[in-house]
Amino acid sequence: MSIRVSQLALVTVFLLCFGVVHQESMAASVWAASTSPIPIKAIELTPTPNPSNAYNRMADSMGLFAKYGLSYEPGPDLSGGGPMRVQAVVTENTDLATSDIIAALGGLYSGAKVKVLMVMTPYGDEQIWSQARYKTMKAALGQSWAIASLGGAQRFNDQMAVQGMGLDPNDFKWIAIPGGDGPRLQALITARVELTTLSHIGAALAESKGYTSKIHAIVPHTAKYTPPIPRLVIVARPSWIEQHEDAAARYVEMMLDMMRQWQNHSETWVSNAEKIYKSGLSRQQLQTVWQEFRDGGYFSVNGGINYAATQKVMDLFFKLRKESPNEYLSKPSDLYDTGPLKKALAKMGIVKGTPGLPDTPDWYNK
């Protein structure tokens, strides 16, 4: 009898310990097992899978939709950028979409029924590349600079970075070259422009192609010169959030889980980037890209929503558009629905991210 009691006690202790260690994992598993998966239709920022912004494809590759009792339904592959994604949400062609904060602000300012659930990049960290003859940004004053669009989030990010360096953004000639890294990299290597902005993946591709004899990274991390800048965001209709409260909460918690795995374990990003991104970059090169992302505070470990940072973006938004706040957009809280994220943070807690580049939810109170 005593042996059986001892065995039972050991089993009980094991289960209790296992339960403490895997509490969050078990909770997600219960979600997955308790009901049929909840379908969510979501659109990525770019049609071509890119691990720097293909959050849904990466989450699906990691098995996270299944873990949280969700099923991923890819929305239509759209051309264009953030505004097209916001439009797809508003017209109910998708439940959720990855867009950029400027497109979200523009839509909301115009009266569109849209809210941001989560900021995926609390720092809009990228690289500034130039012709090799420029050794400093000051030396490149007055030169042409290729960006994705004149009124988009990349322009805002670069302007703040330039100001952080003590320079005037108006001293550069901004040139819009739409698309991903490819067209802007081509413009730089053929000397049609003197500077361009590249993602860390675009920079890795430039190095892998042997371009560094002609062009180079003049600023490896724009985040080192900017305040927190909410950049890429997840948008949804307020009515969808209200009618699908459980799905919204699961989705946000899933994305937070993914971001924290990426922050702490390079393999979770590298191995899944290899699966969805057929670029020719080696595993070691992708490991380097992950390190660059992490060093730049790119991963949204606490959901990325910061009202003070959003206010800075809004101030520049109104300045460049020569407009003023209106009934739809006058304060940062107008942009967000923090309900699902608040539930996730209450369950998962606040964590530290990249040293010196904190992801601080200044709105959050338990």
Entry summary:
With 366 residues, this protein is of the alpha/beta class. The protein has helices spanning 2-21, 23-34, 55-61, 64-67, 82-90, 101-109, 153-164, 181-189, 200-208, 238-243, 245-264, 266-276, 283-295, 307-321, 339-348; strands spanning 38-43, 70-74, 96-100, 115-119, 127-131, 144-147, 173-176, 195-198, 215-219, 232-236. It contains 15 helices and ten strands.
What would your notes on this structure say?
This protein is of the alpha/beta class. Helices cover 45% and strands 13% of the residues. The chain is built from 15 helices and ten strands. The protein has helices at residues 2-21, 23-34, 55-61, 64-67, 82-90, 101-109, 153-164, 181-189, 200-208, 238-243, 245-264, 266-276, 283-295, 307-321, 339-348, and strands spanning 38-43, 70-74, 96-100, 115-119, 127-131, 144-147, 173-176, 195-198, 215-219, 232-236. The protein has a five-stranded mixed β-sheet, with helices on both faces. Strands 7-6-8-5-9 form a five-stranded mixed β-sheet, sandwiched between helices. β6 (144-147), α7 (153-164) and β7 form a beta-alpha-beta unit. α5 crosses α6 (101-109), α11 (245-264) packs across α15 (339-348) and α12 crosses α13. The chain starts with a helix and ends in an 18-residue tail after the last helix. Residues 1-24 have low confidence and may be disordered.
